[in-house]
Amino acid sequence: MNFDQLLYERPNIVEFEEKVNELLGKFDSVNSFEEQFKLIDKINSLRNHVLTMLTIAEIRAQLDISDKKYQEEQKFINKNWPVYEKVVASYYERLIRSTFKEQIRQKYGKQLLNLAEINVNTIGSSVIDKLKRENNLISEYTRLMANAKIEFKGEERNLSQLDKFVSSPDRMLRKQAIEKKYELLEQYENRIDELFDSLIQVRTQIAKELGYNSFVELGYARLSRVDYGQQEVADFRKMILKYMVPISEKLREKQRIRIGIENLTYYDEEVRFKTREAILKGDANWMIEKFKTIFQQLSDQPGEIFKLMHENKYLDLTIKENKARGAYTTYLCNEKIPYIYANFNGSRKDVKVLAHEFGHAFQMAIFNQNNNIPEYILPTKEACEISSIAMEFLIWPYMEELFGNDAMNYRFSHLEDAIFAMPYRASIDEFQHFIYTNPNLSLVERKKKWIEIEQKYMPYKTTYNHSYLKKGNFWHQQIHLFKFPFYYIDYAMAQICALQIWSIAQIDMYTAWNVYMDICKQGGRLSFLDLLDHSGIASPFREEAFENMINSIDTWFSNND
Question: Which residues form a coiled coil (predicted)?
Fold first, then answer.
């Protein structure tokens, strides 16, 4: 059944809670693990139905923010998702104290119990109303960023539509486009600041009421970081500063020389070549057809899955009026199929976005055909990003089909993107740690800290002369700060892991694909560090992972500069 034909029925959360509580009431009294297993299976079936319905509603609400029906459903989700989470926390409590805990570990793996233990205290009845407020604030930010429009080149354009022009080879055009973008964001500056401040306050209140010292601890628990903590992440940021910032700065200087300008500034970042910039040879539909061939050439399974998703409308990739910004992949449990949401703007980065999101989709599709455990649909955040980022690099051999003679320029820009992103992600992460450790900072203090951190990790930006940026506002457009706190550094961790697969692929594509497939086949059954041990990938918390990557990256750029 295609996505448009899926029937949505608002789930009855009260009934869901009653049914799960009834099953949990039997949990402690049964006399065998087999009976508990049957109860777990029934609870997961109820959960999967609710998750499927809410996922359909969320997708449709974001596809058209003017659709009143699904905007009402989004309000319903914001209000009732904390109730769902509270019910799941009750289930986790039963798992943790089960007399058959060892049998649960043997049947489902230790990760299920690890997840139960770390997530059981991320919610409580006393914070339900505050969680609803948090959800409403996130939704308002999403709507604001989707609705924001400004006239440019004779048309009213939203932020996603303006992004199309920021990589134009015409320097004046891209300058005009990005200045329009900042002019538009300045119109909403005060409200964005208010929303973020409200999120900081309500998240801090939730954390305190749940017994945490700060929201940082709760944020880590929400991300199910079961085998590392704040110190490991702080050390990881230090290694980005030591290893990735110098190479990023060196590449930015080479970029400046290559595009022939005296000073690199805020409207030059996305342009990598003075001539022969990697430009797609067709529109979104053309690109989808090309990707059908690319994924089929990569291997039969990705080809078949992508074709199935396209034919059944489980892809929505183009910018539309009233469509929310962003790109993501989600999963419809009962339909056993992933869904990709994106906003193509015609730039080379559309290729990265589709490969990245399909990497998520592929992992979900191949693992979940025989999985009914919601916790295992995806690995934890940093682990699931390995399959998405690695897919970006595994399609490199087929880039001629999309870019013709400019394919090498795409590869060059794509690898640069990976390197440039890591210092920025470390900046966002350090900023979050600072503001949630110091939740009572003034707005001025908060923005001053952002400028300090930004210049620490991205020194090339110190000369950028735009009033919006000089006020410390660049982070306003980073949705992860608002919607997924502490998630953004996960991309950098995964990047170090994915680049190891890329390095293998430079020598032996067959081996690289097998490593990739093995990671995908584990689903969410392993923690992040256990998954790396299983697959032979060096942990991003180990300095040798950085040292090896720098050598591989230097070699590639030396051979292809």
Answer: 131-205
Among 420, 428, 398, CA closest to 410: 398
User: Do residues 233 and 489 lie in contact, with contact meaning Cβ atoms separated by under 8 Å?
Assistant: yes
Q: Which of 240, 243, 272, 270 is nearest to 560 (CA)?
A: 272
Give, as one character, the DSSP assignment of residue 355: H
What is the average pLDDT across 91-117?
95
d(Cα 340, Cα 338) in Å, to the nearest integer? Answer: 7
DSSP, residue by residue, 297-318: HH-HHHHHHHHHHHHTT-EEEE
Torsion sign over Cα 123, 125, 126, 128: positive
* Stretch 430-450: mean pLDDT: 97
pLDDT for position 281: 85
Q: Phi, psi (5° rounding) for residue 365? A: -65, -45
Phi, psi of 338 (to 5 degrees): -85, 170
pLDDT band at 76 (very low <50, low <70, confident <90, very high): very high
What 3-state class would DSSP assign to 322? coil
195 backbone dihedrals φ, ψ, rounded to 5°: -60, -45
- E strand spans, 83-180: 149-152, 155-158
Element (H, E) at 221: helix 215-222
Q: Measured between alpha carbons, how far is 516 from 247 in angstroms, rounded to an integer?
A: 27
Residue 276 has pLDDT above 80, yes or no: no
Question: Coil, strand or helix: which one is 270?
Answer: coil
